[in-house]
Specification:
This protein is an all-alpha fold. 60% of the residues lie in helices and 2% in strands. Among the domains are: 86 residues; 34 residues, no CATH class. The protein is built from 8 helices and 2 strands; from the N terminus they run ααααββαααα. Strands 1-2 form a two-stranded antiparallel ribbon.
């Protein structure tokens, strides 16, 4: 793992820590392939990568002036990405419409159906509403009426007649707070509290990576 040099700068140590974790994860786990959308062109993806680089730079820099400059550059690049993506989607939809017209003229119902699905999307699954007897409601007015009844019953509940407890004295105020250095146990506890399945931040280190190498992670993070 990383060496311990008391004179090393915190930023440098953190940079080495990220580099080791990211390189190790790439060698052992590999990189996850991003699912590319059909309608986004390569030019737009290159702009997206540049925008991602600016975001990482904005999160890593410590200088307020550099962070402000990077934030301005990120905002400009973000507008470029969105405008380029809108143009790509418009162009993609126009091509699909032409293909749909061609399929309709040639009586190719299968192709027309597939193109229509692409344009309209997969659609949303509707959840049915039941009344108190368990009967499925189809009529829109009946559904609204059932929701009205539901919220009327839930929100208009009588307040329980329970006497409030009498407090003889005010609760004890904590005046002594430990402001010393963070302990190894606190670092380990913080890692345990991280939720799995969440996307990593700009450093690219997920909770799972820290947990699977807990011993080394605790040691190195405590040095920081």
């Amino acid at each position: 793992m990383l060496g311990t040099n008391d004179a090393a700068d915190i930023e440098e140590m953190w940079g080495r820590f990220k580099e080791v974790y990211n390189e190790s994860a790439k060698k052992v786990l590999g990189e996850k392939k991003r699912v590319k959308k059909d309608w986004i062109r390569g030019k737009t993806y290159r702009k997206i990568e540049k925008r991602r680089g600016l975001k990482e730079k904005m999160g890593c820099t410590r200088s307020a002036r550099m962070k402000e400059r990077t934030a301005v550059a990120y905002a400009v690049k973000d507008k470029e990405v969105k405008a380029s993506a809108r143009a790509d989607k418009r162009r993609w939809l126009n091509d699909l419409e032409e293909d749909a017209e061609t399929a309709a003229r040639n009586n190719c119902s299968g192709d027309l159906y597939q193109i229509s699905r692409k344009i309209a999307g997969q659609g949303r699954k509707m959840t049915t509403i039941k009344d108190k007897e368990g009967r499925h409601l189809v009529n829109e007015d009946e559904v609204f009426q059932r929701w009205r009844e539901h919220f009327k019953e839930v929100l208009n509940v009588q307040r329980p007649d329970i006497p409030l407890p009498v407090i003889d004295q005010a609760p004890e105020v904590i005046t002594s707070i430990d402001t010393g250095d963070i302990s190894i146990a606190e670092v380990r506890k913080a890692i345990h509290r991280l939720k799995n399945g969440k996307s990593s931040g700009i450093d690219g280190i997920s909770a799972e990576l820290l947990k699977c190498s807990e011993k080394d992670a605790v040691k190195q993070l405590h040095l920081l």
